[in-house]
From TrEMBL, chains A, B:
Pathway: Amino-acid biosynthesis; L-threonine biosynthesis; L-threonine from L-aspartate: step 3/5; Amino-acid biosynthesis; L-methionine biosynthesis via de novo pathway; L-homoserine from L-aspartate: step 3/3. NCBIfam families: PRK06349.1. It comes from the Bacteria. NADP(+) binds at A12, G13, L14, G15, T16, V17, G18, A19. NADPH binds at K109. L-homoserine binds at E194. It comes from Sphingomonas panacisoli. This is Homoserine dehydrogenase. It is an enzyme of class 1 (oxidoreductase).
């Protein structure tokens, strides 16, 4: 095959992203051929339902009922996997594709988070490409930004807003003063959130993406299991209002940091100072910041989901492959990725936002303040807001910078106290 | 040469950026070798003064008194050109390097804006790389972002804050309410602005960069001569205050747009809505927005200058070359770049901010309003602020959206009117 022959693609999965890839390759065909130096052509597709109307003509492509068969097609150079799921048919297809020496492009963050190292090794053995730009931050080319753009830097920290659903919900709560459950229900009705939204709102999706960014940034094997993962389910409109009064926005932020104590990875609701670039990331946007030892702080921002942006990332990977511009999936050979050593969050220092719903009675504030004092947590500010409808009172504390271990001790001391109505909320300050 | 031999670099120019490249290659040596698949080693350097203390040890490198000789060294694979200037020694070195079949990495925006097409053709003929990430937006990997990250998209518009000196001055004027000349003098005293700052403050530097972005975005040959170029010299603290009252920040923005009337390129002071990402780009930061037909709006942001960030971009290019991951300099063969057809700004539609300093006498407002009416310019708002020390009065107008030709006609009508104290200021609204 000479470089002027088209790159031939077998496409697995024809949901909105798969249909988007078909549309993009049709719409921008000539441009892509000029930029890639050769055409990119879909030769075969597979999905659950052949007859479904997807707004694109798929009759011109060969059809496989069995998605796994795409890996065996001799007329394809690359398989694009848009099936989803960390295991099952997606993983089987990925393994078969690479084992057969074909390249693989995937948008599957769960699969990469769980099986990325194995797949990278398979790709290297085969001399094939494994590309996953669409797995993180949708259309934002942050994988390429880290692999190529920031390649000269030791990355010290990578963090960002990695889940558009959570950001959509938080910014709507912020704009309209509404509570979480209410906004989630609306987002689900509008199709902006899945019926089972727990992967999004409990931070799992963002944790998948963060673990991928950490591998690329730090040259460590993917360690999804080490991500301390939290979500936004317990954030109240009142928390957002308190944060605003203090000069912060509330955002679900994934942070990965390589330090002397090891690799720290966390997805959690954070207070972000209003003058930080992430504070201006609204709605379904995603943004990633990488801090390099020479370049300083780089920001990449754009649409984190949607058929067009995600297709843009998938096809950018195909263009890399068509150009022959790909190397080891994690920028260095899988064998040279170091085993990550998970850092203990207790060793971290930072400021915290702590919110308690408490009974409206004498001595509660003293109890909280004593727990903080006994654990060595220094309080920067404390706000108490009048009684809610149910008679409970909101107490919000911002701490001075200190070890997270101390905050955890203070919360342990208060656990089960009859003064508290429900679990306290702990948000970190970025 | 096998791929495991180091990439050997000859470095021309040892100013702050050149010294930064030496420091970076020292500091991140092992990491770069892992990421690039081979080492990257400087073998020879050239600069004006061999003895000058640059904080880096250059005695270990071969020295050339004559910079042009670097192109002839048989022990180098790549020349890094950090000499500067659109022509002269930089261009001679670039031509000789590529003619001799070596690859070239440059941070030289002026040379790329004026001679980029010729150099790209020379690189393609030689099968060598021509890389210029550091020429635009310092450490921000926007060249790679457009060439690779956004490669699947038809880019409709690319725009951004491309000159850190102007942005530093404007944000300082904004924060401190001071006038241009005052802040410029301070920036020069602090070394943040050149003694001869005209390339920066009159928009020429940003125009160089914009023409490079336009070539990559639209597949057109560089057309620096077609950039309508203006600067920030005439922006008053009072303009920034008026803009703020209307919900805008003032920024020097370069905009390139491919439309039905041709390619439009302009560098000009703009009013940027406070909720636009560019409104949050402060100090010496740079940011570029690319709007693609599938990906939507992508934002790349970071340090636009400085030795560390610029060295980061230069070495990222060297890593691309070490990996063998480079193609035609403008992402498609130079021969296939279309000749840009410059669009007439008069055909553009938009909103405008117009500011007049006028004599404090009866009838002046009526004269301005009549000129607007006669030219068909519709006024959205008009503010008149009390007399300045010299007795002149500031009148600021924001127009409704309309053809720029009409605004130009209105200003023509007013030209030379004895009612006006000095030239009006026209800023576009982004």
């Amino acid at each position: 095959m000479t470089a002027t022959q088209p790159l031939r693609v077998a496409l697995a999965g024809l949901g909105t992203v798969g249909a988007g890839v078909v549309k993009l390759l049709d719409a921008n065909r000539d441009l892509i051929e000029r930029r890639a130096g050769r055409g990119i052509e879909i030769v075969a597709v597979s999905a659950r339902d052949r007859a479904k109307d997807r707004g694109v003509d798929i009759a011109r492509f060969a059809w496989e009922d069995d998605t796994a068969r795409l890996a065996d097609r001799s007329d394809a150079d690359v398989v694009v996997e848009l099936v989803g799921g960390s295991d099952g048919p997606a993983l089987a297809l990925a393994r078969a594709t690479l084992a057969g020496g074909k390249s693989l492009v995937t948008a599957n963050k769960a699969m990469m988070a769980h099986h990325g190292l194995e797949l990278a090794q398979a790709a290297e053995t085969a001399g094939a490409a494994l590309k996953f730009e669409a797995a993180v931050a949708g259309g934002v080319p942050v994988i390429k930004g880290l692999r190529d753009g920031a390649a000269a830097n030791r990355i010290d920290r990578v963090y960002g807003i990695l889940n558009g659903t959570c950001n959509f919900i938080l910014t709507k709560m912020e704009a309209e003063g509404r509570d979480f459950a209410d906004v989630l229900a609306e987002a689900q009705a509008l199709g902006f959130a899945e019926a089972d939204a727990s992967f999004d709102i409990d931070g799992v999706d963002a944790a998948h993406k963060l673990s991928i960014l950490a591998s690329l940034s730090f040259g460590t094997g993917p360690a999804f299991g080490d991500v301390a993962t939290g979500g936004i389910r317990h954030v109240l409109a009142a928390d957002i209002a308190e944060a605003a009064a203090l000069g912060f926005k509330v955002r679900l932020v994934g942070v990965a940091e390589a330090g002397p104590h090891g690799l720290f990875q966390r997805v959690h609701a954070h207070l972000v100072p209003v003058d930080h670039p992430l504070a201006h990331v609204s709605g379904a946007l995603n943004a990633v910041v990488a801090e390099g030892n020479f370049v300083g702080r780089l920001l990449f921002q754009g649409a984190g989901a949607g058929d067009g942006p995600t297709a843009s990332a998938v096809v950018a990977d195909l263009i890399d492959i068509a150009r022959g511009e790909f190397g080891p999936p994690y920028a260095m050979p899988a064998a040279s990725l170091s085993a990550p050593n998970a850092a203990d969050s207790g060793d971290r220092r930072g400021r915290a936002y702590l919110r308690f719903m408490v009974a409206d009675k004498v001595g509660v504030l003293a109890e909280i303040a004593a727990a903080m004092r006994d654990a060595g947590v220094s309080i920067e500010s404390l706000m108490q807001r009048g009684a809610e409808a149910d008679g409970s009172v909101l107490v919000a504390i911002v701490t001075h910078e200190g070890p997270e271990r101390s905050v955890a001790h203070a919360l342990d001391k208060l656990r089960g106290s009859p003064s508290l109505a429900g679990e306290p909320l702990w948000m970190h300050i970025l």
